[in-house]
């Protein structure tokens, strides 16, 4: 049976801290990006499991070859985060967490299929891994 992996999308300071927590706990994960430059930068920093999608082209949202355990989307922009939610929801019925510093988009993310909206001012959400 193929191992499940966590998807992390939306690179910012909070997601980078979260990725370090995943690495420390030795949890399997991939980083989802729509930027070839970002993918290149991630690989340069030793993150080899990177999934590139064209967020503007739904036909490019081919489901991954691994089973998705859960998804953590770190809001960088409302539009991109919405597309990541839509893309990931088309891949899995597992929980999708959107981590945001804004109160406004909660209903939008829920409407698109996010399971949980986590509001944080600090960006620290490694507590979400406590049961992993």
From TrEMBL:
Name of the protein described by the UniProt record: RCK N-terminal domain-containing protein
Taxonomic lineage: Bacteria, Bacillati, Bacillota, Bacilli, Bacillales
